[in-house]
Amino acid sequence: MNTSTFFRLKIMGILLSIAGVLIIFQVIRIQNSSAAQSLSADAIKNYDYEEKKIYPERGSIFDRWGHLLAGNKEVYEVGVDLRYIKNAETIATMASDILGLDYETVFNNIHDGYVPGELEYYVLADFVSLDQITSISEIKENYKRLTPLNKGEKLPSLEGVLWTPHLQRSYPENALASNIIGFYSYRDRDQGRGYFGVEEKYNDLLAGSPIVVKVPRDPYKAREVPTVEPGASIVLTIDKDIQSNMEAIAANAMKRNGATSVTILVMNPKNGEIIAMASTPNLNLNEYWKYGEIFPDPTPYNRAVGQTYEPGSVFKVLTMSAAIDAGAVTPDTPFLDTGQVEIGGYTIYNWDRNAWGPQTMTTCMQHSLNVCLTWVAQQLGPTRFYQYLQAFGIGRKTNIDLAGEVNFPLALPGDGNWYPINLGTNSFGQGVAATPLQMITAVAALANDGKMMAPHILESVVENGRQYNNTPQVIGNPVTAKTARTVTQMLAISLEEEASDALVDGYRVAGKTGTAEIPGPNGYVSNLTNASFVGWGPTDDPKFVVYIWLEKPKSSPWGSIVAAPVFSQVVQSLVVSLNIPPDMVRQGLVKK
Question: Does 246 share its domain with 107?
Answer without folding.
Answer: no
